[in-house]
Design brief:
- By secondary structure, the chain is of the alpha+beta class.
- It is built from one helix and seven strands; from the N terminus they run H-E-E-E-E-E-E-E.
- A hairpin with a 5-residue loop joins strand 4 (67-69) and strand 5.
Length: 113
Amino acid sequence: MLLKLEHISMLTTAFIVLAGFMSFSEAGDKPGRQSEFTGRVIDVGGSYVELKRGARELRLEYAATTRFFGLDGVETDKNVIELCQVVKAVYQPVNRAGEPASIAVVKEGNCRK
């Protein structure tokens, strides 16, 4: 009977360690995970862009490595982003904003100029 209790406690300890390791591993993976968001440009600043789709809004802070693509798919600079365009952003969630890896124009804007 004593031997069985030792085995049970050892097995329980192993499960606790394994569960702790798995939750630590998942938490470490989250910052590296990339997400995609396709939405309409509602604000453009010198270092950021804000997108909206439905009720959801997303602010993306440009990084030095952010790549920008025009409607034709050719890489260009951040000046290609304009109000009311539909863009697809691939980004990494950082704090409450995101750090975009790439932003591509999907559809020209239809705002009145």
